[in-house]
């Protein structure tokens, strides 16, 4: 492993060195999407420059090379999340696509009266597909409440579980609060009740080691763009047996074994769920991004991100009128806060003018905002390439902004 040196790491990310409004960019919106290392940019560039071809169908050299690269990326993902089989890794368009796939296809196996449990801190993409499914199939949707500190009410969760529960779909880490949920415990409880579990890994894949076999989750979904890869690509992991039981998602090329007008048979995993020409370089560059991340010292990254989190929270608590939303015991490097009497959007706008990118608003978690009785928050979400010096600049800019708005 390469020793962790944040300045060396920053050199790998060209976007971090640009200016915004004449100020050095401070990028604290990693929860929305991460910046890309040069190696990922180079992979994409090289593919379109000299390696472009369609996959899984060509006899020619370029097609075979592209197919090999795509399938090698699948194996990189497999190793990264510790899946048992490479065909349990389905390339998707992203987290949202993965959840919709499961809602559509696993949803086909459910019948009226069955129940799905989600939580009160889910991203809209882990709420709406279940609402649509429940309406279509006459299922019941139940919601695990969120406690005042931003943790899930686990006692209430146990009460919600019953024989009728067929699926529990929860986020590993809240994109809004930073809460790390005890998903292993949730998975065990759900399995005891006979339910399957989908873990939304959109915010965990980039912050902690993932072992889907140890977790024993039935599905795990993530987006490449939040883990230093390209947009438009993501992964659905599913256990082989369940994926085999599920009907296909979309129909088209690649997902078939044989087509006649009388009857079509479907391809085996993973291709059954990958209709049409995929985002080829998206898949390949996902492999590059995960390979890059694995080459770094994970413990050092974790320590650095935790330092950024603690430092930011401590200093924010000293700032008059600031309230941190989400004070769970287990948190990742996400800090959401509000400032008395000032709209989050106004703070975000003034920070932007000082070169600092944060996110403001409901973060696609409107029910969670309602739960806390607030319209939105200002959110800083750190990646391992952020620094304490950047946090210092941010805190000064925040104080200046509050002063101007008061
Ligand atoms: N779930 C969580 C927890 C997220 O943070 C996000 C992205 N903000 C999503 C789902 C949706 O991801 P995407 O938009 O990449 O599909």
UniProtKB/TrEMBL annotation:
It catalyses: (sulfur carrier)-H + L-cysteine = (sulfur carrier)-SH + L-alanine. GO terms for biological process: cysteine metabolic process. Residues 26-394 form the Aminotransferase class V domain. It comes from the Bacteria. Its cofactor is pyridoxal 5'-phosphate. Keywords: Pyridoxal phosphate, Transferase. Its EC number is 2.8.1.7. GO terms for molecular function: cysteine desulfurase activity; pyridoxal phosphate binding. InterPro entries: Aminotrans_V_dom, Aminotrans_V_PyrdxlP_BS, Cys_dSase_SufS, PyrdxlP-dep_Trfase, PyrdxlP-dep_Trfase_major, PyrdxlP-dep_Trfase_small. It is an enzyme of class 2 (transferase). It holds the Pfam family Aminotran_5. PROSITE patterns: AA_TRANSFER_CLASS_5. Catalyzes the removal of elemental sulfur and selenium atoms from L-cysteine, L-cystine, L-selenocysteine, and L-selenocystine to produce L-alanine. Belongs to the class-V pyridoxal-phosphate-dependent aminotransferase family. Csd subfamily. This is Cysteine desulfurase.
């Amino acid at each position: 492993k390469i020793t962790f040196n944040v300045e060396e790491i920053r050199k790998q990310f060209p976007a971090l060195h640009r200016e915004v409004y004449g100020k050095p960019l401070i990028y604290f919106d990693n929860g929305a999407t991460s910046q890309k290392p040069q190696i990922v940019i180079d992979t994409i560039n090289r593919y379109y420059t000299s390696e472009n071809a369609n996959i899984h169908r060509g006899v020619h050299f370029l097609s075979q090379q592209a197919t090999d690269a795509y399938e090698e990326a699948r194996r990189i993902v497999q190793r990264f999340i510790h899946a048992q089989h490479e065909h349990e890794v389905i390339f998707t368009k992203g987290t949202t696509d993965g959840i919709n796939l499961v809602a559509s296809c696993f949803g086909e196996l459910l019948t009226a009266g069955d129940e799905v449990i989600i939580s009160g801190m889910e991203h809209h993409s882990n709420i709406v597909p279940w609402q649509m499914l429940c309406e279509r199939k006459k299922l019941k949707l139940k919601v695990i409440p969120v406690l005042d500190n931003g943790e899930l009410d686990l006692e209430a969760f146990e009460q919600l579980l019953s024989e009728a529960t067929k699926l529990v779909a929860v986020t590993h880490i809240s994109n809004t609060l930073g809460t790390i949920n005890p998903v292993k415990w949730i998975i065990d409880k759900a399995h005891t009740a006979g339910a399957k579990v989908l873990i939304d890994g959109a915010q965990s894949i980039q912050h902690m080691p993932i072992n889907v076999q140890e977790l024993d989750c039935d599905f795990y979904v993530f987006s490449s763009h939040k883990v230093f890869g390209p947009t438009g690509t993501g992964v659905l992991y599913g256990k082989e047996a369940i994926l085999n039981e599920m009907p296909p998602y979309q129909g088209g090329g690649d997902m078939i074994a044989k087509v006649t007008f009388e009857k079509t048979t479907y391809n085996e995993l993973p291709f059954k769920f990958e209709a049409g020409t995929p985002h080829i370089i998206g898949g390949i560059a996902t492999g590059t991004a995960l390979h890059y991340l694995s080459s770094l010292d994970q413990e050092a990254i974790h320590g650095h991100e935790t330092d950024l989190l603690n430092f930011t929270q401590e200093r924010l608590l000293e700032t008059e009128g600031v309230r941190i939303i989400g004070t769970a015991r287990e948190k990742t490097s996400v800090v959401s806060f509000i400032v008395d009497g000032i709209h989050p959007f106004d703070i975000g706008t003034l920070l932007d003018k000082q070169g600092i990118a944060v996110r403001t608003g409901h973060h696609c978690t409107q029910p969670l905002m309602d739960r806390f009785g607030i319209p939105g928050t200002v959110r800083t979400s750190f990646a391992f390439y952020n620094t304490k010096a950047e946090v210092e600049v941010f805190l000064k800019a925040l104080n200046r902004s509050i002063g101007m708005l008061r």
